[in-house]
């Protein structure tokens, strides 16, 4: 969650060429997805067990870390403004 909050502004502004409302929409989608997983995970644990679910999550996490771009090359730490000056 922390990584989502820190990098969201830069990602929406730079990569998606968005605005502050775009940041709000992206954070809302992240929160909705988190709630959906949190509510459905107990049923998944009952069906297949905790170990396969946790191993799949760990593999997904490691794959994401390996595939992610280098933040030192892609982040410029500027804030999103309602209007861009030219």
Structural write-up:
By secondary structure, this protein is mainly alpha-helical. The chain has one domain. Helices cover 76% and strands 0% of the residues. It has four helices and no strands. Helix 1 crosses helix 2. The longest helix has 29 residues, at 20-48. The radius of gyration is 17 Å and the shape is flat.
List the helices and strands and how they pair.
Blueprint: H1 2-15, H2 20-48, H3 50-67, H4 71-74
Helix pairs in contact: 1-2, 2-3
How many domains make up the 3D coordinates?
Answer: 1
The secondary structure category is mainly alpha
The pLDDT mean sits at: 78
Regions with pLDDT < 50 over 5+ consecutive residues? none
Shape: flat
What is the share of helical residues?
Answer: over 70%
- What's the helix-strand series? HHHH
Largest sheet: none
Count of discrete alpha- or pi-helical segments spanning 4 or more residues:
4
The count of β-strands is: 0
Strand content: under 5%
Task: Provide key terms for this protein.
about 90 residues, mainly alpha, 4 helices
Task: Briefly say what this structure is.
This protein is mostly helical. The chain has helices at 2-15, 20-48, 50-67, 71-74. 76% of the residues lie in helices and 0% in strands.
């Amino acid at each position: 969650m922390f990584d989502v909050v820190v990098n969201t502004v830069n990602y929406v502004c730079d990569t998606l060429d968005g605005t502050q409302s775009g940041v709000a929409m992206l954070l809302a989608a992240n929160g909705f997805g988190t709630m959906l997983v949190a509510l459905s995970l107990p049923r998944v644990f009952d069906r297949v067990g905790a170990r396969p679910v946790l191993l799949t999550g760990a593999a997904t996490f490691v794959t994401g870390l390996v595939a992610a771009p280098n933040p030192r090359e892609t982040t410029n730490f500027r804030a999103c403004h309602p209007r861009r000056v030219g």
